[in-house]
Write a structure and sequence with these properties.
alpha+beta
């Protein structure tokens, strides 16, 4: 019985650490570029696009801000959509493998 309690404590510690780390991801930043730097994208650790810089030679200056907003919105929506599909696929793949323990949401750990 003592080993089971020790295991449960370790699982709870791991879950708390995962949630803490996930909360910190908002501060993580990465930049990507294409076209020899003509398009640059900044994302955070939560896989959200924060900014897009588009060289003015690629667009009509009057449409630049609208195009930027549309690209950010479409990219974020695509990321949300793929995340939902990934979670669905992982849930189906691991169905019945994880114990059903009240209060423990193993599905969000993936």
């Amino acid at each position: 019985m003592m080993d089971f309690m020790n295991l449960m404590n370790k699982v709870k510690e791991a879950q708390a650490k995962i949630k803490e780390t996930q909360a910190e991801l908002v501060h993580l930043r990465a930049e990507g570029e294409a076209g020899a730097g003509m398009v640059k994208v900044v994302v955070n650790g939560q896989r959200k696009v924060l900014d897009i810089a588009i060289d003015s030679s690629l667009v009509n200056e009057q449409d630049k801000d609208m195009m930027k907003d549309l690209i950010v919105g479409a990219t974020n929506k695509a990321l949300e959509n793929i995340d939902a599909k990934i979670k669905e696929k992982m849930s189906a793949a691991t169905a019945g493998m994880m114990p059903n323990i009240p209060g423990m949401d193993f599905g969000n750990m993936v």
